[in-house]
Amino acid sequence: MHLIPESIDTPEILIDRDVLVRNIDRMAATVRTKGLDLRPHAKTHKVPEIAALQLSAGAVGLTVATVGEAEVFAEHGADDVFIAYPLWVGPQKAERLRRLLHADIRLAVGVDSPEAAEMMAQSMGADAGQMDVLLEIDSGHHRSGIAPEAAVAVAESAAAAGLHVAGIFTFPGHSYAPGMPIKAAEQEEAALAAASNLLTNAGFHVERLSGGSTPTATLTGPSLVTEVRPGVYVFGDAQQLELERCTPEDIALTVAATVVSRHEGTDGMPRRVILDAGSKILGSDRPAWATGFGRVMEHLDARITALSEHHATVVWPPDVTLPALGERLRVIPNHVCLAMNLVDEVTVTADGTIIDRWRVAARGRNK
Amino acid sequence: MHLIPESIDTPEILIDRDVLVRNIDRMAATVRTKGLDLRPHAKTHKVPEIAALQLSAGAVGLTVATVGEAEVFAEHGADDVFIAYPLWVGPQKAERLRRLLHADIRLAVGVDSPEAAEMMAQSMGADAGQMDVLLEIDSGHHRSGIAPEAAVAVAESAAAAGLHVAGIFTFPGHSYAPGMPIKAAEQEEAALAAASNLLTNAGFHVERLSGGSTPTATLTGPSLVTEVRPGVYVFGDAQQLELERCTPEDIALTVAATVVSRHEGTDGMPRRVILDAGSKILGSDRPAWATGFGRVMEHLDARITALSEHHATVVWPPDVTLPALGERLRVIPNHVCLAMNLVDEVTVTADGTIIDRWRVAARGRNK
User: Fold this and answer.
1) What ipTM did this prediction achieve?
2) How does pLDDT run across B248-264, given as a tens digit for each residue?
3) In chain A, whose CA is at the least distance from the CA of B344?
4) Domains and CATH numbers, chain B
5) How do residues B290-308 score in pLDDT, each as one tens digit?
6) Which of A208, A306, B156, B248 sits CB 3.0–4.6 Å from A313 for a disulfide?
7) A184 CB contacts (<8 Å, ≥6 apart)?
8) Contact A33/A43 with Cβ under 8 angstroms?
9) Closest in A11, A143, A262 to B367, CB measured
C-alpha cells in the first residue's frame, strides 16, 4: 500500500490518525491500570486537536514547557496545565501567568531554587498563592532540579514567599539511552520518594508527585508517583524505536520525502540517495548511540548518515537496489518534538488518504 | 554596556543592526574587489529587510534553497533568484515555478541527473526553456551533485529536453571543518574548471560558474568563478567562530537567555548553569569538532555541553564565578540558519536599544 497521498508535495509531515489514536488509547489504558494520573506533555505535538484526543482518552490535564504553550492550549479549552519548567518569572511572564489564572486555568509551575521562588512571588504579587508550585527534583539527569536533600530548604523559602508548594516533579532524561530506561525509572522513584519523605517530615503536604517520560512511564509503579508526563508516545520516533520503546507499527509521524539525487557509489563513496528532507523539517538531534539522523520507514536497514538543511544523505545496504529518482519515502525523525516545531501545519491521513490538516498552533512558543 | 534591552523577555533572537550592516558591506566589498558577482544565500536569514540590505550593497540577486523561499523574496521585490538545489519538479512545484516566471522573476534552478532534467522539462511544459539551469557539480562534499566527468551527459540530456543549460554550481560543504577552508576552496575551483572545460569542448556556453560558501567565499579568486553564494556571513555563528572565519565582534545574531537554574557542582557534577534557550531556538547542529552546542558571548570560555528543547547546560570554568540566577546572557548559536528558522520574528537592536522587529517571512518554507 502506498501511504503518501499523491496530492502531497514533499517534504511534508504526515500523521497517521489510526496509529496516533491507538498510541493515545494504549498509554491512557496502561496508566489508568496503574492507578496513576496521565498528564501528557503537549510540547511534543503542539496541536490542540491532539490534546483534545488525549483529554478525552482520560488525561487529567496537560503538561507544557513554556507559558506560551500554556496560553495556546488554554485558548483551546485546556483548563488544567502544568508548566514543567523551572520558570524565572519576570514582569512579562508574571502578567501572562496572571491572565491565565484570571481565566480560571488551574496552573502549576516548577521551581528549583529559593531565588526563583522569591522572584516568582514578588512578580506575581497577590496572585502568587493561586498557582501550585512543584519543586523540581534531579533524579540523575543532572540538568535542572535539586537533590532530594535540598527540597525542604527550597520548599520553606517558597512557602515563606507566599507560594503554595503542592508537590514535586522530576524528568528522568537519562532514560534516553540504551539500557537506561529501567535504571532511570528506579532512580526517578527513589529520588521522588526521598524528597517526599523529607518534605512530609518537615510538615509539607505533598499532594502531587509527578514523574515519567515516554521511556519510563510504562515502567513506573507500583509507585509513590501520582501522575506521569510522557510526550513522545503519541507519535513515536527513531530514538524510541532504537531504544525499543516502540515498534515501526507504532510510528504515527513520518516526513514524506522525495529522492532528488542518486549515486551508485562509482565515485568511491557509499551508495546513497539524497532526500529533500533535511534538518529544517526533521530536526538535527542525533544522540551518540543513534544509528543516524532518523530512519527510512520503507527501508529500515538504510542509514541517514548526514543531514543538511534540505538534504538527507541516505546510505543503502550493498545488496539492495537504490530507490529511483523521484521515488517518495517516509522518514522517521530522530526526535518528533523538534520536527513538529518546524512546520505550521501537518497532513493527517488514514489508510494513505488525507482526512484533515492540523495547525501546529503552539509552534515556536518558546517563552 | 548591557546589550539585552530590559523590555525583552527571553529566549529571544537579537540582531545587532550595525554589525549586520558591517558584515554585509565587507563581504560585498571583498567580492567586488575580486570582480565576482555576489549572490548571497537568503536561507540563512529568511528576512526580506536583510535581503534588501544585501541587494542595495551590490548583490546581483539572491540564492535560495526552496521554491517557497523564492516565492517569499519575489513577493518582497527580488527579481533574480537562483534555487541552488537539485529540484525534483513535480506538478505542484512546476505550477509555482511557472507563476514566478510569469511574474517576470529571473529564475535559475539546479539539476544533477538526466532524470531530474527530463522530469522538470516535462512538468514545466512550454515554460521549461525560460529558466536557467545550472548543473550541480560535486567538488568533494559528496552530497548531491555529479562528478565533472558526468557534466556533459547531464547537460546534453537537459538541452535535449528543452532546458537552457546556463552554467554550473557547487557547494563546498566540506569546508565546514578545521583546516579545510583552503583545501575545499581549491577543490571547488578545480571541479568547476574541469566541468566548465568539458562542457565548453562539447559546445556548451558556460555563462555562469557559481561557487562559494561563507568559509571559502573570501578565498576564491583569481578564479574562473563568476559568482559566489555565501550565506552565514551576515550574522556569523559559533561554527564560523570556531573555524576562525569570523571574530566575536562580527557576531550579529545572539539569543538572549536567562539563567533559570544554577549548580555549584556540590552534586559531584560540573559547575553549571541552565539557560532557558534550548534546541527549539538555538537548533541542535553540533559538528564533532565543535566545543559544544554554541557559545556564550559574555563568557567565551564557558561550554554548552548539552541542549534540551528548552534548556542549555553551560559548564563554567573552575576559577570563574557562576552567573547569578536571573542573569541574562547572549548565546551564539552553532548554526544561525537553523536558529532563524525557529522564530517568527526577531528583535533588531543598535547599541543595546530596540530599533525594529523583523518578520522571518520565509521561515518554514521547506518546499
Assistant:
1) 0.96
2) 999 999 999 999 999 99
3) A364
4) 34-234 (3.20.20.10), 239-359 (2.40.37.20)
5) 999 999 999 999 999 999 9
6) A306
7) A139, A140, A172, A174, A175, A215, A216
8) no
9) A11
